[in-house]
Structures are given as structure tokens and as C-alpha cells.
From TrEMBL:
<dbReference type="GO" id="GO:0070475">
    <property type="term" value="P:rRNA base methylation"/>
</dbReference>
<dbReference type="InterPro" id="IPR029063">
    <property type="entry name" value="SAM-dependent_MTases_sf"/>
</dbReference>
<keyword id="KW-0489">Methyltransferase</keyword>
<dbReference type="GO" id="GO:0005737">
    <property type="term" value="C:cytoplasm"/>
</dbReference>
<dbReference type="InterPro" id="IPR010286">
    <property type="entry name" value="METTL16/RlmF"/>
</dbReference>
<keyword id="KW-0808">Transferase</keyword>
<keyword id="KW-0698">rRNA processing</keyword>
<dbReference type="InterPro" id="IPR016909">
    <property type="entry name" value="rRNA_lsu_MeTfrase_F"/>
</dbReference>
<comment type="similarity">
    <text>Belongs to the methyltransferase superfamily. METTL16/RlmF family.</text>
</comment>
<dbReference type="Pfam" id="PF05971">
    <property type="entry name" value="Methyltransf_10"/>
</dbReference>
<comment type="function">
    <text>Specifically methylates the adenine in position 1618 of 23S rRNA.</text>
</comment>
<keyword id="KW-0963">Cytoplasm</keyword>
<dbReference type="GO" id="GO:0052907">
    <property type="term" value="F:23S rRNA (adenine(1618)-N(6))-methyltransferase activity"/>
</dbReference>
<keyword id="KW-0949">S-adenosyl-L-methionine</keyword>
<protein>
    <recommendedName>
        <fullName>Ribosomal RNA large subunit methyltransferase F</fullName>
        <ecNumber>2.1.1.181</ecNumber>
    </recommendedName>
</protein>
Length: 300
């Protein structure tokens, strides 16, 4: 298998650093074969602009590397790229150090795909709770849990108040080691569509009227955009300062980092750290903060 230059920038423990071995993946998930074709360089690949092809690739990856035999999502729901999602989990493990399976993870906005908890549970043995406001998404996520026999390691909860992130889903007296979140980063449906069209052009395709990689409005859009979501999350996290060791969230737009740091200063976070990540030319990052006196022991 020829290494993928974009994959080589992934976390050192990321299982996808060497790229996709389509021969192995097609053996694992034969349905993938219908979408595999030589790319412009003669290497096996898929058309990443085709949702069915991306879903088949995800099904193969989750089965081959994460022990998820049955995985599916409803039409038009977010179908996330697995390597980048795995990177977030690995860098969270570095943040925590060697704490083992006693780690409890809360995934805010877990979606119908449940990908972060699936990766975290299989790779590190963490106990995971996925939260979402979308009842249909949670029904699908629960089905993934049931079909793969992942209870009680994984469970899902519905957030009944769309204005809240932690209230109502963190139970009184309940403790979490960390939270994670991939927040909606568009302020409107029109902005989401424009962003999707840029992705289509990046794939060398004419702009389409469908969202690349899918996504429901609550997965992609929040009034005020990413900045408003992050500000609200940070403000609310203060109320759970003693129930969560680390709060973390992806920050899609680097221009929002200064706003995030100001918000964290206002709530008097004790520890704040930013972890930079990359997948090829795509740069991403997450910010982590804690209100507790602690020293993070790095994993090697």
C-alpha cells in the first residue's frame, strides 16, 4: 500500500497514517468494492463526493480497525471522515496520560454516527456517553450500540433543551474525566451550503445542491455560528467545574481562538491548552480547559 502524504501528518498512534489499504478493506467489507476505482495516479480510491462511497468506506474502516461490525446512518446525516476523528481521540489520550479504562467521556453532539465514542471505547477502553438534541440521531446511535453489543460501555442521552450543552445530561453527582465536542460552525443554512460548495470545488467537482458528507441543520448550524456556540459552552462549563476534569472542543476557525481565550479568562479556568492537529493541508485544533488543580501527564 502506498502511503498517503496527507495521512502521514496524523497522530503517531493513528491507525490510518499509512493511508487506506483498499485490498484489505474490500475483504473486510465487500460492499466497498462497488465504489473503488483507480484515481488519477493509478492508485485505488473512491469518489469522495459520493455519499454512498464515503459511507461504505467508513463501514469498512470501523469494522477493520474498531471492531464495529454493524454501522449505518440515515440519509442526509453527517458521515464523518474517520482518520481526523480518530486524531481528536488520540490527542485527548495524550492530554490525560495513562489513566486506562476508568476514563469517562461525554461527547456533546454525538450525532447519528456515534464515531467518537466508538473509536474511544475500542482504542482506549473508555466509558462513553453520547449526547444529542436529535431524537432520530440518537435512535440510530442506540441501534449501533445494540447491534454491536456495546452496552454498558456506551450509552446515549437526549438533550431536551437546545440552548444547553451540559445541563440536563450531566446527572447530579456524576463525574466525567473529559468532554469533547465537534460544534456546528455555520451561522446559517446559506453559509453551510456555501461551505459545502467550496468542498465540492476542492474535490474537483461542480458545486452541487447537496451537502458534502451530509449533515442535518443542527449538526452544521447554530445561531451566531461557532463563536456563539463556543462562548455559550464555556460559560456553562463553569457550572460543572467539579464534575468534569477537562472540557474540550474543536475550534474550526482559528480566528475564534482569541474569543475563546477571553471567554475562558472570564470564567477563571485554571488550565487552558490548545492542541494543534493536521491531516495533510487541513489544519484543525481543539482547546481544553479545566477548573481543577491538576497536572496532565503526557502519554508517549
Amino acid at each position: 500500500m502506498k502511503p498517503d502524504q496527507s495521512a502521514s501528518t496524523l497522530h503517531p498512534r493513528n491507525l490510518h497514517r499509512a493511508g487506506y489499504d483498499f485490498a484489505v478493506l474490500m475483504q473486510t467489507h465487500p460492499a466497498l468494492a462497488a465504489y473503488v476505482r483507480p484515481n488519477a495516479y493509478g492508485d485505488a480510491s473512491i469518489d469522495f463526493s459520493q455519499p454512498k462511497a464515503v459511507k461504505a468506506l467508513n463501514q469498512a474502516l470501523l469494522k477493520q480497525y474498531y471492531g464495529v461490525a454493524v454501522w449505518d446512518i440515515p440519509a442526509d446525516y453527517l458521515c464523518p471522515p474517520i482518520p481526523g476523528r480518530a486524531d481528536y481521540v488520540h490527542y485527548l489520550a495524550d492530554l490525560l496520560g495513562d489513566q486506562g479504562p476508568q476514563v469517562r467521556l461525554l461527547d456533546i453532539g454525538t450525532g447519528a454516527n456515534l464515531v467518537y465514542p466508538l473509536i474511544a471505547a475500542h482504542t482506549y477502553g473508555w466509558q462513553c456517553v453520547g449526547v444529542d438534541i436529535d431524537a432520530n440521531a440518537l435512535r440510530n446511535a442506540q441501534n449501533i450500540i445494540d447491534e454491536n453489543g456495546l452496552q454498558p460501555q456506551l450509552c446515549v442521552r437526549q438533550q431536551s433543551n437546545p440552548a444547553c450543552m451540559f445541563k440536563g445530561v450531566i446527572l447530579p453527582g456524576e463525574l466525567f474525566t473529559l468532554t469533547m465536542c465537534n460544534p456546528p460552525f455555520h451561522a446559517s443554512a446559506a453559509e453551510a451550503q456555501a461551505g459545502s460548495q467550496r468542498k465540492w470545488r476542492g474535490l474537483g467537482k461542480p458545486p452541487a445542491h447537496t451537502l458534502n458528507f451530509g449533515g442535518q441543520s443542527n449538526e452544521l448550524v447554530y445561531t451566531g455560528g461557532e463563536a456563539a456556540f463556543l462562548t455559550s459552552m464555556i460559560h456553562e462549563s463553569k457550572q460543572f467545574a467539579h464534575q468534569c476534569v477537562w472540557f474540550t472542543t474543536l475550534v474550526s476557525k482559528a480566528s475564534n481562538l482569541s474569543l475563546v481565550y477571553r471567554a475562558l479568562k472570564r470564567v477563571q479556568a485554571v488550565h487552558v491548552t490548545t492542541v494543534e492537529m493536521a491531516q495533510g493541508q487541513k489544519q484543525s485544533r481543539f482547546v481544553a480547559w479545566s477548573f481543577q488543580a491538576l497536572t496532565a501527564k503526557k502519554r508517549v
